[in-house]
């Protein structure tokens, strides 16, 4: 019974490259959330998606960042033209319910390092 | 702008003592409240939820909620070194906004 799966666990990119982070929610979950955590900082909400729909992207930077959750396959957080400030842990969480209840199940995170 | 305030700590308590973690929030519409624990380098995990004013106990953990004061707390009795982690408060008011967390250190 797999939990939330994120890959890659660690990703190194040079400035200007693209980073793609993937998240497969728990079985039966159709809601995905992405959070970013800087070192010694709290979790910052980025985006909330359901299958084929972005429900709330109020936490996403306006440029370079995008997210999708297609009908088939994992959710993907895409960061174009990465900069050093993008270095962080990116956590994905999933929930089985229609509205956020707080009972989120987190993946182990993807740690992005931008050189 | 919804805000969640927590004392960042570190909060240091001796083994066996009671650790008290506090959280205030700005959104009066929040109806449910959650405490997550995050060990260093790991992902957050849910440890307590509370929906009504008053206390809720689960083992060594007690969550306390006061909606009028917009205040929620977590008490950890008989603290153990394994409780050393960052504790994140998350009121639910739409999207799950987390506080920055309080780092707890339990000294043997």
Number of strand elements of chain B: 11
What structural category do the secondary elements of chain A indicate? mainly beta
Give the overall average pLDDT of chain A.
Answer: 91
Order of H and E elements of chain A: EEEEEEEEEEE
- Helix/strand-derived category of chain B reads mainly beta
The largest pleated sheet of chain B is described as: 6 strands, mixed
- Rough outline of chain A: globular
Helix segment count of chain A? 0
The radius of gyration over CA of chain B amounts to: 13 Å
Q: Tell me the quaternary state.
A: heterodimer
Q: What sort of overall outline of chain B do the alpha carbons produce when their principal axes are compared?
A: globular
**Helical stretch tally of chain B:** 0
Percentage beta strand of chain B: over 45%
Q: Using CB atoms under 8 Å apart, which protein chain pair has the greatest interface?
A: A-B, 22 and 20 residues
How would a textbook summarize the main sheet of chain A?
7 strands, mixed
Q: Average pLDDT value of chain B?
A: 90
The string of secondary-structure elements of chain B, in order, is: EEEEEEEEEEE
Strands of chain A, count: 11
Helix content of chain B: under 10%
Instruction: Tell me what portion of residues of chain A adopts beta-strand conformation.
Output: over 45%
Structure, described:
The complex is a heterodimer of chains A (about 120) and B (about 110). Chain A is mostly beta strands and about 120 residues long. Chain A has strands at about 5, 10-15, 20-25, 30-35, 45-50, 55, 65-70, 75-80, 90-95, 105, 110-115. In chain A, the strands form two sheets. In chain A, strands 2, 4, 5, 6, 9, 10 and 11 form a seven-stranded mixed β-sheet that branches. In chain A, strands 1-3-8-7 form a four-stranded antiparallel β-sheet, with no helix packed on it. The N and C termini of chain A lie far apart (about 35 Å). Chain B has strands at about 5, 10-15, 20-25, 30-40, 45-50, 55-60, 60-65, 70-75, 85-95, 95, 100-105. The mean pLDDT of chain B is about 90. Chain B is built from no helices and eleven strands. In chain B, strands 2, 4, 5, 9, 10 and 11 form a six-stranded mixed β-sheet that branches. The interface between A and B is medium-sized, with 22 and 20 residues.
């Amino acid at each position: 019974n797999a939990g939330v799966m994120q890959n890659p666990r660690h990703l190194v990119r040079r400035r200007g490259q693209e980073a793609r982070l993937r998240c497969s929610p728990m079985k039966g979950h159709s809601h995905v959330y992405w959070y970013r955590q800087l070192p010694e900082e709290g979790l910052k909400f980025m985006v909330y998606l359901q299958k084929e729909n972005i429900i709330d992207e109020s936490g996403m930077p306006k440029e370079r960042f995008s997210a999708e959750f297609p009908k088939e396959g994992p959710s993907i957080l895409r960061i174009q033209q990465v900069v050093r400030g993008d270095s962080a842990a990116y956590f994905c969480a999933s929930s089985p319910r229609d509205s956020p209840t707080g009972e989120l199940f987190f993946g182990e995170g993807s740690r992005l390092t931008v050189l | 702008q919804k805000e969640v305030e927590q004392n960042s700590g570190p909060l240091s308590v001796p083994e066996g003592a009671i650790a008290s973690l506090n959280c205030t929030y700005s959104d009066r519409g929040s109806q449910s409240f959650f405490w997550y624990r995050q060990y260093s380098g790991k992902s957050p995990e849910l440890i307590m939820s509370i929906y009504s004013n008053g206390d809720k106990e689960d083992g060594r953990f007690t969550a306390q909620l006061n909606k009028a004061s917009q205040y929620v707390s977590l008490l950890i009795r008989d603290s153990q070194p394994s409780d050393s982690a960052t504790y994140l408060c998350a009121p639910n008011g739409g999207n799950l906004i987390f506080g920055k967390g309080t780092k707890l250190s339990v000294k043997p």
